[in-house]
């Protein structure tokens, strides 16, 4: 579905991502984890062409993204950044309507079909009753759901999320991740997201990609990736790994910094 091949990303003279490759299958939820400054967000931005890559290829279903316009890419893939902003007088319904722009010519207004898709996206995210609310009046968790609804209105095949739980309290973090998993299962949406919480990555991902110093360390299922040795070498902390009776995903308890 999504192939990243030998990606190199530089800021000025400094290369921050080195020879990064990844192959994500259709319908998978993949989390990218790693220490601060390891290049996680830059990888997402390069995949979505928000920033250029020095070299390498990004393909969707064997079609190279460099051969597509931004409008064509927006019909296939949508990215939500850590912080998303819009004018203070924009309602939730208007915001979600912006998701239809990639499917319209510059002079076209939204059609009846577009409004049906907007309503569908609001319903999918539990935001239909908020349609006429101003976005600035929402809580952090509600606002994040509104932005995800806008992304759904694009009808993408791939959703990229850069730290979608940032600034949210624990309950709203879980709400957003449960929503992401529901959309993945119900709509067969492929999801790639950057997360900091190892337990969230373990519980809500089919596979985990571990980055350190701009390089891929390991990619695989949570139970294969999240080991005490790997976490020690990447994060410099000692952990205890626990498996619950009803889950194959490991639960990580951080004990102390490693010597």
TrEMBL record:
<dbReference type="GO" id="GO:0006826">
    <property type="term" value="P:iron ion transport"/>
</dbReference>
<protein>
    <submittedName>
        <fullName>Iron ABC transporter ATP-binding protein</fullName>
    </submittedName>
</protein>
<dbReference type="InterPro" id="IPR051535">
    <property type="entry name" value="Siderophore_ABC-ATPase"/>
</dbReference>
<dbReference type="InterPro" id="IPR003439">
    <property type="entry name" value="ABC_transporter-like_ATP-bd"/>
</dbReference>
<dbReference type="InterPro" id="IPR003593">
    <property type="entry name" value="AAA+_ATPase"/>
</dbReference>
<keyword id="KW-0547">Nucleotide-binding</keyword>
<keyword id="KW-0410">Iron transport</keyword>
<keyword id="KW-1003">Cell membrane</keyword>
<keyword id="KW-0408">Iron</keyword>
<dbReference type="Pfam" id="PF00005">
    <property type="entry name" value="ABC_tran"/>
</dbReference>
<dbReference type="InterPro" id="IPR027417">
    <property type="entry name" value="P-loop_NTPase"/>
</dbReference>
<feature type="domain" description="ABC transporter">
    <location>
        <begin position="2"/>
        <end position="238"/>
    </location>
</feature>
<keyword id="KW-0406">Ion transport</keyword>
<dbReference type="GO" id="GO:0005524">
    <property type="term" value="F:ATP binding"/>
</dbReference>
<dbReference type="GO" id="GO:0016887">
    <property type="term" value="F:ATP hydrolysis activity"/>
</dbReference>
<keyword id="KW-0067">ATP-binding</keyword>
<keyword id="KW-0472">Membrane</keyword>
<keyword id="KW-0813">Transport</keyword>
<dbReference type="InterPro" id="IPR017871">
    <property type="entry name" value="ABC_transporter-like_CS"/>
</dbReference>
<dbReference type="GO" id="GO:0005886">
    <property type="term" value="C:plasma membrane"/>
</dbReference>
